[in-house]
Amino acid sequence: MMGIAEKQKAKFERVTPHYQVTVHPQTNRLYHIELSKESIAKFLDTISQKDFSVQHLEYTPYARFLTASCILDQVGEEFGGLLRDILHDRGTGGFTLGLEGVTEDTDEYVIFSTAISHLIGSPNYDAMSGKYYARFTVKDTDNSDSYLRQAYRLFTLHTDGTFVDEPTDWLLMMKMVEQNARGGESRLLHLDDWKEQDKYIHHPLANHKFLYKAPGSKNVSQEIERTTFFNYYNKPGMCFIDQFVYPENIEQANYLYELSNSMENDKSLLEFELPVGDLVVINNIFWVHGRAAFEKDPKLNRELLRQRGRFNS
């Protein structure tokens, strides 16, 4: 018998001459969108003809929206609305999408991800990279000041944008390079699947404004106060990351610790593989995400791209 989430998701499934949308094979909370190879090749050819290089996109903000227009020229004007509808829908709020092996050029990965992100909304400035996107590697050794690049430990579940004073409605992650990687699966949990959600959203500290501060590598000096839970279209939204939140006492620390452990041990937590050249986009308000630990390998090399931002009006 089809469950509630499956019924909600079925409304977005479709097949067109240029793409098809199906329920993700690993979870009924996500969609997988497969573009035709012909449409991808024509998109990349158009980008090349227009000389929309990565540098051009970095220097010329309006060109980023023009790459989004180039996608629509190939697959149809309704495609952007479809992506936004999926992300806004509480029953799903996420999808995967890739380049189907048409290219292995990482510059074209950046351009493709830019087109997708600008169909969704506007990416925020990423202070870590000084651009509208960030690329970062995970290798055998690491001297950073956060868990983002530390390969051999669990990167715990969290939302993005906790320590910046701007909306962070959605998150896009794309796998650029992967060599000698075992483990390191993407980890996701939809808030509505979290068994102990009620326990923590009705706790006296659920609406307490916690202080968030970023480490030096993030290049963000401001300090932000945020509640852990908030109302989002009459459903709970969440803002949390264990690394950057500063409680004021033992009671607050216990609440944050137990909340994090509850999510980490929830049976609905999803771990899934993302192929090189594929991206995943989730609604950052009601999905939390993280990464499993890698197995030890001196030659480990994974590179990811990140964009995160707001929905446009």
UniProtKB/TrEMBL annotation:
It comes from the Bacteria. The keyword S-adenosyl-L-methionine does not apply. It holds the Pfam family CsiD. Keywords: Iron, Metal-binding, Oxidoreductase. The keyword Oxidoreductase applies. GO terms for molecular function: iron ion binding; oxidoreductase activity, acting on paired donors, with incorporation or reduction of molecular oxygen, with 2-oxoglutarate as one donor, and the other dehydrogenated. SUPFAM superfamilies: Clavaminate synthase-like. This is Protein CsiD.
